[in-house]
């Protein structure tokens, strides 16, 4: 097994998956790598069928060459060239843009498997993922709810979480894809303690040696001493105190209508939001294109766009690559923490 994920050029490499090959993923991927070229601190190697990238480049009007690779022994980089690890899944088949197709779903799943394997073998320093279509991967036979669950299975991890990064600030989630009613039911003290500790660990892994974390409240005004709800009194405050007693810098529960503003004012390094939309709305309203997702808890680095396949505009060349560009550049930045990630989350 290689001891390093750095190719002969000295720059770390990132495996980039386009997601669904008939969504906007191929377009935003080729635009990103054509724009960044050899100037970023890491190089990107796309895991896909080369024909998929060539079609996307044509749609986008890009004058680039797609270079097929069949090994992770990477050649010298060249300007105007996008390297593609040949997936060998679709060949030259041209699938209809913007449609649910099990062949596209199978290609998306296979790309994730290949990219994850390369990261686990330290052939690359991390993985950057484009948007998949859940219907397509299910049609192809995948039993996973999405990327996160698939990556957990591929890496042998049973618990992983999402960390949003927006302009250097981090947002975590005590609950994820559940109803608001279920999220309230899950907010017990022990669950909160676990979520707080996981967020603090992630902050340390990603460069905050003495992390400052705020726990967002659930109810208006933080419950107003029980007048608007007692979750803060019964569960959130006791959890915060328990973790603070261990020496961690944790504040809260802080009313949700102010905690994200305080995050931007650099009072904290991260915020633990209580449910999906609480954190998503704050991040995406502030900077939709700059908000990217990092899966924490995996023994590999994984950054991702946080939007869908946009089938309605796929194949038109109109897709904005800003979020993929941000995901790739954050992958470049966080690749320096690859050893920390393996040490903390590896078996």
Automatic annotation (TrEMBL):
It comes from the Bacteria. Its EC number is 1.1.1.262. It is an enzyme of class 1 (oxidoreductase). This is 4-hydroxythreonine-4-phosphate dehydrogenase 2. InterPro entries: PdxA_fam. The keyword RNA-binding does not apply. GO terms for molecular function: 4-hydroxythreonine-4-phosphate dehydrogenase activity; metal ion binding; NAD binding. The keyword 4Fe-4S does not apply. SUPFAM superfamilies: Isocitrate/Isopropylmalate dehydrogenase-like (SSF53659).
């Amino acid at each position: 097994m290689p001891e390093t994920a750095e190719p002969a050029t000295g720059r770390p490499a990132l495996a980039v998956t386009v997601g669904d090959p008939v969504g906007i993923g191929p377009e935003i991927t080729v635009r990103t790598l054509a724009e960044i070229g050899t100037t970023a601190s890491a190089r990107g190697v796309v895991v896909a069928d080369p024909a998929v990238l060539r079609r996307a480049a044509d749609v986008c009007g890009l004058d680039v060459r797609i270079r097929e690779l069949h090994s992770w022994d990477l050649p010298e980089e060249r300007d105007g060239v996008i390297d593609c690890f040949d997936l060998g899944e679709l060949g030259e088949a041209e699938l209809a843009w913007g449609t649910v197709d099990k062949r596209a779903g199978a290609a998306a799943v296979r790309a994730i498997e290949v990219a994850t394997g390369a990261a686990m073998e330290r052939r690359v320093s991390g993985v950057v993922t484009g948007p998949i279509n859940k219907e397509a991967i299910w049609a192809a036979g995948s039993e996973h709810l999405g990327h996160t669950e698939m990556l957990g299975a591929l890496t042998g991890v049973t618990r992983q979480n999402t960390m949003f990064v927006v302009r250097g600030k981090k947002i975590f989630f005590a609950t994820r894809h559940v109803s608001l009613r279920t999220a309230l039911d899950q907010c017990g003290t022990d669950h909160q303690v676990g979520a707080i500790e996981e967020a603090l660990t992630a902050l340390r892994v990603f460069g905050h040696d003495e992390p400052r974390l705020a726990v967002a409240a659930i109810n208006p005004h933080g419950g107003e001493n029980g007048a608007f709800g007692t979750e803060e009194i019964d569960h959130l405050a006791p959890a915060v105190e328990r973790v603070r007693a261990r020496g961690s810098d944790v504040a809260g529960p802080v009313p949700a209508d102010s905690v994200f503003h305080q995050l931007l004012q650099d009072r904290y390094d991260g915020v633990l939001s209580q449910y999906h939309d609480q954190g998503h709305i704050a991040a995406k309203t502030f900077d939709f294109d700059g908000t990217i997702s990092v899966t924490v808890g995996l023994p590999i680095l994984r950054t991702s766009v946080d939007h869908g396949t946009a089938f309605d505009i796929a194949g038109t060349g109109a897709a904005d690559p800003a979020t993929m560009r941000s995901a790739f550049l954050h992958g470049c930045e966080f690749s320096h923490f690859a050893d920390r990630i393996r040490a903390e989350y590896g078996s």
